[in-house]
């Protein structure tokens, strides 16, 4: 048996090389994103993450974003026996997917044995090659290892897959063979956009993240450097009925002292096992038909008002959901990705297609925060439609209980107090990733101070199904 080990290659550059310093940094970053450890109330537990998307830059830049994903793992530490780690090849070209020939990877925190049995399951696939040189200096896989060692201990084996020119179908085929059950965690390593201005990166990454949450499988390297492994993994995650949960998003310009001229984007997303997977898969199939119709209806309404050519008005018979009562929000963004209007309803009071078209008109021409949309803005306009599920009350006694009950990346929230009401869609978690930050911003929107609480304040939460027209484009996003 081969007993050779791949030594750490980027220790001292991407993360500390000294074990004690490395443990200290990991613990600080993990504790910065972990839920508060108050005796009461405890946060509502999330389902077990089956797959995580994490960035792979130096810890000073992307460590806290990655930590938000790794902090979800400690409750499942005893279950996870194998980590399948996929990342892009940056240093040397890889024709398909490269497996190493060594039997362990090493970091300053110790050796991690490779899962040789799982590796053997893949070696007959034509896209698999056994090659150590592409792995030798590659950072996209290595930077994840100290985090895994810190949260899982030494009870897991590693299956490292370095992806080059493999197609989404080839990645999904290999991943399916080692998908396993509760004992297997899948980890996808990827950053987002590279070397755009802060504003450009924010706009592009917002769209990319929405596409990832919609299980797009045609991402390109300009959107995510790990597009090759990510496309295949997303195809398989959708097939298995996983539910995505946005954990944290930022770019290198967000760190203290970070420069804004050339930044790199980062995101962490958990894809969780869902007990309602069969119904979820059926819903996703229906949404693939419904989303483009709603987006077309919204765009038709705006184009008609501007006197510009646009898509035809949707036929109400094109989908059974169109004529049923529905509640929606329509959000518009300009060519730079900045919000240009957002209007919606919280309750289903009219046919869905009528609601979407009316909200599209109002978002473009009646949102009091913005001037009415002009014809010259039409070419760069981006349209997003969010369908709201029925809201459910949150029976909390105080703010601490409310913060513990909120589900970042999942919950839209309605705040009502006397004659004041405000809501945030779940998409706002990307800008306000902590529950306290999210709730304080919502209070501000309602005209209340950030420390306000009253016994008669009411909170309700809801989920949305979000459709961004770029997610349905037939060509790659810009």
TrEMBL record:
<dbReference type="InterPro" id="IPR027623">
    <property type="entry name" value="AmmeMemoSam_A"/>
</dbReference>
<protein>
    <recommendedName>
        <fullName>MEMO1 family protein LNV07_17735</fullName>
    </recommendedName>
</protein>
<feature type="compositionally biased region" description="Pro residues">
    <location>
        <begin position="36"/>
        <end position="46"/>
    </location>
</feature>
<dbReference type="InterPro" id="IPR002733">
    <property type="entry name" value="AMMECR1_domain"/>
</dbReference>
<feature type="region of interest" description="Disordered">
    <location>
        <begin position="31"/>
        <end position="51"/>
    </location>
</feature>
<dbReference type="InterPro" id="IPR036071">
    <property type="entry name" value="AMMECR1_dom_sf"/>
</dbReference>
<dbReference type="InterPro" id="IPR002737">
    <property type="entry name" value="MEMO1_fam"/>
</dbReference>
<dbReference type="Pfam" id="PF01875">
    <property type="entry name" value="Memo"/>
</dbReference>
<feature type="domain" description="AMMECR1">
    <location>
        <begin position="289"/>
        <end position="478"/>
    </location>
</feature>
<comment type="similarity">
    <text>Belongs to the MEMO1 family.</text>
</comment>
<dbReference type="InterPro" id="IPR027485">
    <property type="entry name" value="AMMECR1_N"/>
</dbReference>
<dbReference type="Pfam" id="PF01871">
    <property type="entry name" value="AMMECR1"/>
</dbReference>
């Amino acid at each position: 048996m081969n007993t050779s080990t791949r030594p750490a290659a980027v220790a001292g550059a991407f993360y500390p090389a000294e074990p004690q310093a490395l443990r200290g940094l990991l613990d600080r970053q993990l504790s910065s994103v972990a839920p508060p450890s108050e005796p009461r109330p405890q946060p509502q537990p999330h389902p077990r993450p089956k797959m995580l998307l994490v960035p792979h830059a130096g810890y000073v830049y992307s460590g806290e974003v990655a930590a938000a994903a790794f902090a979800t793992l400690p409750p499942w530490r005893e279950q996870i026996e194998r980590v399948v780690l996929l990342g892009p090849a940056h240093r040397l070209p890889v024709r398909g997917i490269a497996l190493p020939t060594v039997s362990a990877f090493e970091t300053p925190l110790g050796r991690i044995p490779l899962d040789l049995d799982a590796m053997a399951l893949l070696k007959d696939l034509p896209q698999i090659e056994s090659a150590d040189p592409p792995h030798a200096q590659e950072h996209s896989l290595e930077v994840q290892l100290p985090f895994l060692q810190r949260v899982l201990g030494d009870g897991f084996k590693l299956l490292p897959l370095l992806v080059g020119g493999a197609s989404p179908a080839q990645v999904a085929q290999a991943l399916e063979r080692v998908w396993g059950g509760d004992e297997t965690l899948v980890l996808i390593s990827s950053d987002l956009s590279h070397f755009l201005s802060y504003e450009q990166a924010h706009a592009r990454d917002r769209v990319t993240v929405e596409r990832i949450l919609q299980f797009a499988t045609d991402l390109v390297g300009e959107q995510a450097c790990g597009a090759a492994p990510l496309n295949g993994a997303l195809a398989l995650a959708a097939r298995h009925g996983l539910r995505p949960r946005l954990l944290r998003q930022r770019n290198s310009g967000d760190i203290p002292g970070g420069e804004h001229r050339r930044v790199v984007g980062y995101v962490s997303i958990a894809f969780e096992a869902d007990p309602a997977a069969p119904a979820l898969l059926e819903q996703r199939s229906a949404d693939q038909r419904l989303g483009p119709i709603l987006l077309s209806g919204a765009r038709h309404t705006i184009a008609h008002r501007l006197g510009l050519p646009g898509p035809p008005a949707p036929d109400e018979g094109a989908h059974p959901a169109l004529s049923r009562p529905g509640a929606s929000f329509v959000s518009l963004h300009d060519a730079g990705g900045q919000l240009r209007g957002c209007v919606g309803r919280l309750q289903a009071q009219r046919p869905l297609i009528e609601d979407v078209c009316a909200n599209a008109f109002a978002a473009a021409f009646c949102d009091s925060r913005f001037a009415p949309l002009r014809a010259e803005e039409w070419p760069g306009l981006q349209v997003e439609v969010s369908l709201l599920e029925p809201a459910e009350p949150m029976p909390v006694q105080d703010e601490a209980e409310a913060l513990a009950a909120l589900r970042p990346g999942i919950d839209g929230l309605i705040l009502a107090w006397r004659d004041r009401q405000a809501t945030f869609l779940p998409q706002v978690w990307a800008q306000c990733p902590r529950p306290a930050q999210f709730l304080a911003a919502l209070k501000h929107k309602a005209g209340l101070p950030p420390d306000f609480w009253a016994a008669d304040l009411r909170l309700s939460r809801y989920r949305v199904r979000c459709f961004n027209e770029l997610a349905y484009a037939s060509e790659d996003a810009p």
